[in-house]
Amino acid sequence: MLEGFELYNYVTNLLGGVDRLVSMIGLTGSTYSKNSVIYFFRAKSKKKINVVEIVYNYGPDSFEMIFSNFSNLEVKVIERYSDVYIDQLVSLFETVTGLYLSFWHGVRNEWGASLP
Question: Is 103 a member of any domain?
Fold first, then answer.
């Protein structure tokens, strides 16, 4: 069971690591609690989203993703998704925010296969 810093490391590595988050979305800060990780970023995203909270649900072994806007010391929830599985985290982040977490997004090799 992942908790606290272990959960933070796990989710951050799934999203590509701190260095990639800094370069791709302008990560400005992050924090964690027992069962959640929060990322703050400055990149211009769809719907003015600049905060993403990822909450781990122990029972169903799934995540909840909460996309918010933080401005003027006020947090406004833009979209919320529950029952998100581990293999959906990156694609849901990219779809909702319009920001990519990899340079390889949509690139195909010479045989027409998508690259990771």
Answer: no
In a domain, 113, yes or no: no
Query: How many structural domains comprise the chain?
Result: 1
In this structure, the number of other CB atoms found within 10 A of the CB of residue 26 comes to: 15
108 within domain boundaries: no
The 10s digit of each residue's pLDDT in 25-80 is 999 999 999 999 999 999 888 889 999 999 999 989 899 999 999 999 999 999 99
3-state secondary structure of 62: strand
Buried b (16+ CB within 10 A) or exposed e, 93-115: bbebbebebeeeeeeeeeeeeee
Both tokens of 60, joined, read 């169903």
Distance of CA 12 to the CA centre of its chain: 8
Range of the domain at 52: 4-97
pTM of the predicted model as reported, rounded to 2 decimal places: 0.85
